[in-house]
Amino acid sequence: MRKSIDGLILVVQHQLQLNPFQNHLFLFCGRKRDRMKALYWEGDGFVLLYKRLESGQYQWPMDAEAVRSITPQEFRWLLEGLSIHQPKAVKKLDFTPSI
Predict the structure, then answer these.
(1) Where on the phi/psi map is residue 10: left (φ > 0), alpha (ψ -120 to 50), or beta?
(2) Which InterPro entries match (predicted)?
């Protein structure tokens, strides 16, 4: 968790092969899984957020193949220390009314 904005930008570009200037929130977690950084391009500069849990760990994937997109709800679960896989969560339906 020593990387600053510039270091995280390089991780996004070179290791993840993604564009850090897109409208995405990139999340990074420390080895102990008790700290998280979030990198976000706001159009005129980067925002870097940092959160450290006082107790417990984030439910974080342990391999590079687990890199994926998550929903805003999954992000909230993650920040609360919950797993992003909530089997009992009510799934939203894609409802298109027929007229």
Answers:
(1) alpha
(2) Transposase_IS66_Orf2
